[in-house]
Design brief:
The chain is built from 13 helices and 18 strands.
């Protein structure tokens, strides 16, 4: 979140940020609350000073035998106390309201972010891997059809157990997913990342700390009750991304300068209610309610955060480079920038199985597999994560960054479509073969059973 001092001193900057991100915030009301709160704090200080002076007079008057004047001073002290109690109660109410209003204010975009209203203003920075494309079938079968033909993807049985937006992986499909996860973890370990296995349920405070709450509460899965029920002992949510627990791992802590940068990676399943728009993205495993991802989280000194940001992009795309998958880098404009982010790049892999209007000239479509973001101190201020530059200096908020390294299902989509062969088999990318027992070709499995009862 932004500090109240920053908002107070830079209202035009904050108002401009809200406008560019397309987020409606009643900033004037927030500033009014802040002004009234400061006036009350000043009045409270004055009343407290008066009360202290009167209290010190009471003893002196009693010693001098001035009982009537002492009684008057006692009454005056009681009156001041009642006024002070009223002022402090109102100030506390306003402070709570102010903190709530500040949670509605988005992060300020970095000055280098292109200005635009929506994704149409995003800027493609570069494409990689299109110079030497492998041969593919004349018509590439989309992953959702190919996966069912090979008996490695099963949507119908998942629908019976869990509803829409879920799927089973079977046989070589499951081996491919497990291999991808371990491959990614090994790649990022080479890059200096420390493995973390976080808890999957997270508290509301942790979701608020990274910026998911209160804005995206409707997208989350709550444990033990409806999303609109008051929080109680079951104030736990299934994590939408490992960013939440890993970032909050250091909440309410002061790190040392020598600790930084901290580079963590975590593989987790992720749970989200949103399931995309109608059409192609609702088919298959592109947009689902549960998916695996390897998340990269960095804690850095403020002066180093943008150098680390560019390096983090490279660390995420290293996975696609090694797998030989074509992709592109997009810079997000202000209108397509997330609520807490100061700057963001998307990495989109090329999947040739479904043509879309905005796909590359070779056909197919782009699938976002990583969003690499710099939050500056926005998350650190919410979660109160600080560091001390020197032992004798005051603590400052760190900058936090994260990126997916990368979203597993969409990389699987790209592999099934890009490495597809004319006979309907799929060549396993060489870097994954050692993780899949030497398997070089996914050629399918036999069907199980006669099919669903009632069919035929």
């Amino acid at each position: 979140m932004l500090s109240r001092q920053f908002v107070r001193q830079n209202p035009d900057t904050v108002r401009d940020a809200c406008e560019k991100k397309g987020i409606d915030v009643d900033l004037d009301r927030l500033l009014e609350i802040d002004e009234e709160w400061r006036e009350l704090k000043s009045r409270g200080d004055d009343l407290r000073h008066q009360q202290n002076e009167v209290s010190s007079q009471i003893g002196q008057l009693k010693q001098e035998g001035k009982s009537e004047e002492a009684e008057a001073a006692i009454e005056r002290s009681q009156t001041l106390k009642e006024k002070l109690d009223g002022v402090e109660t109102r100030a506390d109410e306003l402070e709570d309201l102010l903190e709530t209003k500040l949670l509605e204010v988005p992060g300020v975009p970095h000055e280098s972010v292109p200005v635009g209203a929506d994704e149409t203003a995003n800027i493609e920075r570069r494409q990689e891997g299109f110079d030497n494309l492998r041969e593919r079938p004349t018509e590439v079968t989309p992953h959702y059809d190919l996966g069912e033909e090979l008996e490695i993807l099963d949507f119908n049985r998942a629908s019976k157990t869990s509803g829409g937006g879920f799927y089973f992986l079977r046989g070589d499909g499951a081996r491919l997913e497990h291999g991808l996860i371990q491959f990614m973890l090994d790649v990022h370990r080479e890059q200096g990342y420390q493995n973390v296995v976080p808890p999957l349920p997270v508290r509301s405070a942790a979701m608020q700390g990274t910026g998911q709450f209160p804005k995206f509460v409707d997208d989350a899965y709550r444990l033990g009750g409806a999303n609109d029920e008051p929080y109680g002992d079951d104030d736990l949510w299934l994590l939408p991304t490992a960013e939440v627990p890993v970032t909050n791992m250091h909440r309410e802590e002061i790190l040392l300068d020598e600790d930084l940068p901290l580079k963590y990676q975590a593989h987790t399943p992720n749970f989200r209610r949103e399931a995309g728009e109608h059409g192609t993205e609702t088919r298959g495993i592109v947009r689902v309610h549960q998916f695996n991802k390897v998340e990269l989280v960095n804690f850095v000194r403020p002066e180093n955060s943008y150098d680390r940001f560019e390096a983090l992009v490279g660390e995420a795309e290293d996975v696609l480079d090694r797998l030989g998958l074509p992709y592109r880098i997009l810079e997000m404009c202000t209108g397509d920038l997330g609520f807490p982010q100061a700057k963001k790049y998307d990495i989109e892999v090329w999947a040739p199985g479904d043509d879309t209007e905005d796909g590359p000239e070779q056909g197919g479509r782009w699938l976002e597999v990583s969003s690499v973001s710099n939050f500056e101190e926005f998350q650190a201020r919410r979660a109160n994560i600080q560091y001390r530059p020197e032992h004798h200096e005051p603590a400052e908020h760190v900058h936090t960054l994260n990126g997916s390294g990368v979203a597993v299902p969409r990389v699987m989509v790209a592999i099934l479509e890009y490495y597809q062969n004319p006979d309907g088999t799929v060549t396993v990318p060489k870097p994954l073969r050692s993780y899949m027992g030497g398997l070089e070709l996914i050629d399918g499995h036999d069907s199980v059973g006669e099919g669903a009862l009632g069919e035929g």
